[in-house]
Design brief:
- Helices cover 31% and strands 16% of the residues.
- The protein has 152 residues and is an alpha+beta fold.
């Protein structure tokens, strides 16, 4: 995968940099709301793993307004509907990791993960081989979800 082997990583917040670009497969932004945007995870745990991210560069929930928190949850609900329509997962993990010690890869910018789950999606490859296997390229995930996003 090209994005893993890039020699140079971008400087700055990945979410702030992504929202400055036009939406498309390059920045992986599926949609934009009033105060948040929906972006595919560049290093997904499962196919369809996406995130809801406030436009504001803030690290915690108490740094956004109640309206932004409400929009985070409404877009999470929208994301679940879209993922159900395209991938038919058996379950979902929704989560916010506040701070690096909690597992946040981008601790300085609040984001909510939506991870579709299937029975057996944790197989020996991830546990023993320390390798994740995804059946679909991110560009295909982007096309599939983008095609139905505004209809869900």
């Amino acid at each position: 995968m090209k994005y893993i082997t890039k020699a140079e990583k971008p400087r700055g917040c990945v979410f702030c940099l992504a929202q400055q670009q036009a939406d498309g497969p390059e920045n992986l932004i599926l949609a934009r709301g009033q105060a948040v945007f929906i972006i595919l995870n560049r290093y997904p745990y499962t196919t369809g793993h996406l995130m809801i991210v406030p436009f504001a560069h803030v690290a915690s929930l108490d740094e956004v307004t109640a309206d932004v928190r409400a929009e985070l949850m409404e877009e999470a609900n929208h994301a679940v509907r879209a993922l159900q329509a395209v991938y038919h997962p058996q379950a979902f993990n929704l989560g916010i990791n506040l701070g690096a010690a909690a597992g946040a890869g981008v601790a300085e910018h609040l984001h909510l993960h939506i991870v579709p789950r299937w029975g057996g999606d944790n197989n020996f490859m991830g546990v023993i081989g320390e390798t994740r296997v995804l059946p679909e390229d991110l560009s295909e995930t982007y096309q599939r979800l983008g095609a139905i996003w505004h209809t869900c």
